[in-house]
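Two proteins, back to back. First:
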Amino acid sequence: MTEAIAVLDIGMTNKKVVLYSNELALIGEKKKVFPPLMRDGIETHDLKAMEEWFLASLGEFAASFSIGAIAVTTHGATFVCTDDKGNPVAPCIYYTHEPNREFHERFYERAGKPEDLQERTGTPNFSALINPAKGLFFLKENYPLEFAKAHWVLPYPQYWGMRLTGIAAAESTYLGCHTYLYDWQKNDYSSVADMLGIRAKLPYPIRQAWEVLGTISPDIAARTGLSLDTMVTLGIHDSNASILPHLASKVSHDFVLNSTGTWCVLMHPVDKYGFGPDELGKVVFFNRSAWNTPIKTAIFLGGKEYETWMDIIAKSSGAKSSRQLPKPDKKDYLRVLEECNCFILPEIVPGSGQFPGSVARAVQGGIAYPLSEIEAGKQKVVFLQDAKMAQAVLNLSIVLQTEVALQRTSIKPGTEILTEGGFRGNTDYNMLLGSCFPGNAVYLTDLQEATSFGAAMTALTALKKIDPRALSRYIHIEKVLVPSMFAPERLSAYRNAWHAQI
């Protein structure tokens, strides 16, 4: 049988089992969406259903391929409280849950000032539970008996690793991504872990993504048909998996990776960790790469915003689905720019992106229509009924959010912008982005499953027992230059008006 590597790629929306050859060629993929389990009116992850599907999918692949190693990559901001065997003992809550303002005040009263924490942990303040320490604090307050039962508090990739191997661990890329739990200055767990009373429940030492966690347990082997010798690596944060091919390719140029999906994650590898005085309090943070180097990062819910508004546009214009909408052309964009009175503004999850004081809404002729009222059918917006014009307004909104995020990663003239993920196929978005940055080339790369590919790289390292930096020979990234849609001055008036609305 063909030898292969399996990746469990666990996004917020799509859960995947992806198969690669031992030369990192994509050879198979299964995908599924799982609805949340509701508990006390709160969305939680259906861990049991996901596990059953993962194992069934691995079993189907194992019938045709000899799988030597499994890597896990997951979305961020999620931890699982388990017993000593890795069985969940508390609900795994969606990070999109939004507690009230008083909750956040209580957290910072106990943990410390947001700016101080940001400086030490590289983590900004989010209003939802996007800071995992806040998610754990929420469990401690609302499910104290279950929280107290935890033997392990496991980062999400390592939870799945434990389910596969029975071995608990923690890994640097996940802990070093807006968790509040990792102290960049001490290279260890932070004081917030002590405040939560979980230091002893967090695995130690903090390990690396390409290390071998262990081999699969006899139970997993029996349920999947995989060999007992199948290795499982430590696991890796999804954004850090997507940038790993670029870091490993030994490309010397300066770049920002624009990784787009549910989240738009703008990542700029930099020489040293540290914030400028005007950056504290902003939604800018540091990822810790698989090389343990700093990556200056800014994020916003671009994919989720895009899908939310596209569904509204489809409904408003009478289309059966957003897939049936006619695409805008250059004339539609010119009309929007010249009239300069129609806008879509962030943020659909307040405090999740670059404009934490903004409330999601459409604006036409100076009148604001809140997203909540549009979705409830209480407000109708004229321009949303014009599908082509509305999409032009939406693309401009996403691009202007991207522009601010890029600026906050310390982009410089000459820094390349590499778009991967869902917005790779949105030509208008990328051409408009080029218009915003005339001094920076915008490229599309051919890594269409960059997150899964990056995770597979960690498994290949373990499987072949090679130095991670030797992976460059397996990586061939093609780049396609994107032309600008307009001269940059075309956007100036609209950009200023858009920001003025916020």
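And the second protein:
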Amino acid sequence: MCQKLYSSDALSKQFAILVFLQPFIDIYRLFVGNGIEVAGISLVELINILFIGYLGILFILNQKRWKSFALAGVYAILLGVYLYLHCMNILKFDTGIIAGTAVNVAIEVYVILRAYVLPVMLLYMMVYIKTEEERFVKTAVGTSAFISIVIVVTNIFKVSYISYASYLEENEHIRQNIIEWFTKSPPKDLNLITSKGWFYSGNQIGLILLILFPVVIYYAVAHKKKRGYACVAVQVVAMIMVATKTAALGNLLVIGIMIVLLAIFGAVKKQLKENLKAIIALAVILGGGALLLNSSPVKMMISLQGMSYMQSKEEEDLEEELELFADGELDTKGFSKFLNKYYYIYGIQEEFVKLFPVEQHPQFWLAVISNPNKKQVNFRDFKMEIYEQILELNDNPGDQYWGIGYTTNFPYMERDVIAQAAWFGSIGAVLFLCPFALVFLLSVFNILRRFREKMNLYICTLGLSVCAGAGGALMAGHLIGYFFPVIIWIYLLAQLYHESKEER
């Protein structure tokens, strides 16, 4: 009985349970948050930590060859050295540069171990445990279908929460459902018609749906059943409702790529007639998705973003006053009062002027709003500007290698590699990201080594899912360091690795 508990098949089933639990944990997180804590750790975090710890114990019992832990031992030593040097470096940070900075070594180490090392441990285990295709596909499709249905149903009944909070309350219900996109004028704040269902983060849930989407399409094509294509259509609607660019535009791109793959494999294997029904069905869904996208909040947001570079009337009225500050010696107090009052006119969010106070950094802010491209539409680039200024002010060469630290209160950069490099330095970023890159590269190597044998629709689907996750992380972030999306992505990455090296 005990042996059965930690057999490879049993571990595979429990990995699947961990994946399927994530949407329910996320819903709990939205409604309860950190209301329940054990020893200062939220129940949400504790469930995942204990579950992965439990899997880790079973995994150790499963592995009879201790040589398999040699690599883990090397990684642990490197991690220990890094943690010491990282903590020593952040203790040198000038806390006066960023408002609200309170460097805390204990919290820093906890965040690194929980958000970055634990997923690496999970990846390490899953690389050794194979999941059969049927179980994997059912788990992935079931998880994706549940998320999509929750988003669509809560949107229709107008009980969904908005994807982006902006200046609104963190969790606010939508003002219009999908039907009202076509029957009513949109509200002034388009965030009010974006839908994340009952999930915690619109950005995360959009990325998760993008990662799982190729597998959902594969399920529809492979099983040739109407319910499969119904799942595809519902997910397209859900991803457009979320209204992140990653989800809304990514889903159409994924369908297009899958249609091309079906056509290629159909031609090569002389199964084009067999694949034609699937191609037509997907093309119809693609066309419907494109029409829906044209009336969606994300389309309106993109249009407004392009217009926001235009100079507003209020900005024109303030130009004279701004010129007075630019001439001669800067009146720091007067300029600070000016920008704290009118920051929104220049496309600057309040969080930035609070994070990097105008009183302390007047020359930086004067340069920002005096720039010809006054509107700070791309907040990712703007955060990078602030980060570079922080490096200059802190004047510590070690920051680039060991990082300024998560607890310095510097905000998330919304591009994973850049975010990790800022918080944890280039060495930390390599240490946390290399295991994922290594598994992916080994998978690619295995496929190329046996190209004719390995190239099929299933392995291309897995590759597309993994690349969708990596691309989303690079462009919009919210993957590495976040339990829900990274566990989903690891599940697919490990499956790609197994399929690349094993006989079918």
